[in-house]
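CORE FACILITY INTAKE
Project code: CF-77B
Contact: R.S. (postdoc)
Sample description: multi-component assembly, two entities in total
Requested service: structural model of the whole complex
Turnaround: standard
Below are the sequence entries exactly as provided by the requester. Do not edit them.
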Amino acid sequence: MSRMWAIVERELRRFRRSPFLIVVSMIFPLVQLIILGYAFGGNVKHLKLAVVDQDHGLPAVKIRELAEAAASGARTVDLIDYADEGQAVTDLRNGKVNGVLTIPPEFSRRVLVKNQPRVALIEDNTDTVVANALAGNMSALLLAYNEPPTAARVPAKAALDVVEVYPYVPYIQYLLPGSIAMSIFMMVMIGGGIIFIDDKARGLHEGYLVTPITKLELIAGFNVSGTIKAVLAGMAIMLIGSLIAGVPSPFDPLRIVRLFVLIVVTAFALISMMFLLMVRITDPLLPRAIFGVLNTVLYFPSGAVYPQQGFPGWMQVIAKIDPFTYSVHAFKSLLLKNTGFDAITGDILYLLAFSVVTMTAATSLFKRTL
Amino acid sequence: MSLAIDVRSIVKKFGEFTAVDGVSFAVEEGEIFGLLGPNGAGKSTLIRMLVTLLPPTSGTALVSGFDITKQADDVRRAIGVIPQAMTSDLELSVEENLLIYAKLYGVPREKRNKLIPELLESVELLQWKDKQVKFLSGGMRRRVEIARGLVHEPRVFFLDEPTTGLDPVSRTAVWEMLRRIKSQRDLTILITTHYMDEADKLCDRIAIVDHGKLVALDSPLTLKASIPGKNVLEASFSATPPDWEARLKTLPFVEGVAAHENVYRLSSGNGPATTLALMEAAAAASVTVHSLAVQSTTLDDVFVHYTGRALRDELQEASAKDSPFMIRRA
């Protein structure tokens, strides 16, 4: 296998002289981690809520006071008083306010006679996140409104106590496993797939094919070198990303060893997949063209940014095959829960099986001649 | 003398298209053998089959005694190849390029430590050994490739258009280096080139290939003697009478006339006598001679005679299959 190591040596010498490649393949996952982490991770604040009080009775004043308390406390909403409900709805449609809280004229009377008192929340449901935040906030407000002035000494209602097993996980930490898998994929794609096709197009492979190197040595050389490059990228993003996201004890040696093993297995699975995709391609533009599509198809269904339980059936099928799914799940276990190998054995086995299948298919498709 | 290359009725088809059509020839050990032909004639396909890059459709060849279809690995160990495309690793240094290939050929450490500096000395690149290839000129890169192709001491060296695209000084340098390397080693060289003057000076024998077939094979001297005329007159005229070509054929010592638009090429057994007669005939017919050149028969004439195409026809549109990244030499 000494010839295989010649290919590996050549690839790594080139890699060392291409700092631009290293930086590019690391910047994207890091930028994505930071931007997405902070963009999606925060709570919605300062939503403009139009209040149309058509009742002015005491119960209406109480509703209004509770809304003001929410506005000055959590600052989820900023209240704007409207006298005319029509104008408030027009402003909602024009985007000047995010919701309209209407207290109808009969509200106080209905409260007193206990005849289904209602307030209305008219919301802009084109923005689901904002709409949900407003609805949640107003529901909480009405719950508080409906509480009796004095609580019973022994509550008769069943209550839920939530016990969190792990410390609070901010969204940026939730994203980190996907970013590590992404950095491995980026290096596999740029440092593996694209360079492989470019070299083929430039005729560099002809140089190899006229030497006595065997098909197996050649394939092993490409894949081992690709795996090494991807592991370096994955380890770097794992450490830098852990520091940025504030993962506790990022330098715990035992966890780093486990993560290293997982990164190696992920890198090998992805390079095998890449090799299968590229083995018969000769046009250098093609890997560039499918880069974005592959990125989307692998990254988003993996559960890296959103729980898979929310996916439609067809997307869950993609998620089941997607190697990212198992890699991201295993990274979450190790990074966010600090588990051992027991929790990720299934993931590792899937990634290894995936590597064997794709590598076998790629090897059978690889041609030793032009 | 034993044979370095023995090509036996080799055929290569790509679908319906026959690129190489039953070619047979033999190259003796120690020869410099030139393979000439217009673009698309099948030269590169032929070389690619001989170096085991393409399997033949039928027929076979022995290279250094090994069958290209049955003993491909033995062939690969025995040959050095400079493909048509630039295949040096631009990111690696000159020495690293040779080192990686020495390892790919399994050259032992002691041997490569001795051989690499020797080869770099031969191609006059020793002082640039630590420079990345991307900083070298085209001619220097070609010399890197020549040294790289010899790093495992092959017995047969295949070079596919190694000087195309180089300036005249670099071309001369490459050829001189090849000649010097050949004088120092037990080496057979098979080379394709578009430069007839180089082939004329350097090749012991030349094969001309056209439409996938071998159309001529001999030494440059014999090939030149094989076509009509010792001299070629190339002349252009003002308005000529309709029977002008017929009249030119009747001039003394003229053995053949070929007309291309307003340019006439006359093969003559006696250049000066035909020139004189031509001027007289033009004056008598009130035809003005715009240009007139007389030259001895060259390999260009041999090439045109056998392939029926002028060298300028080599300029062609890029193929749709050409990669935008491919560094072509012509």
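Facility notes:
- Chain A has a mean pLDDT of 90.
- The radius of gyration of chain A is 28 Å.
Invoice: internal transfer
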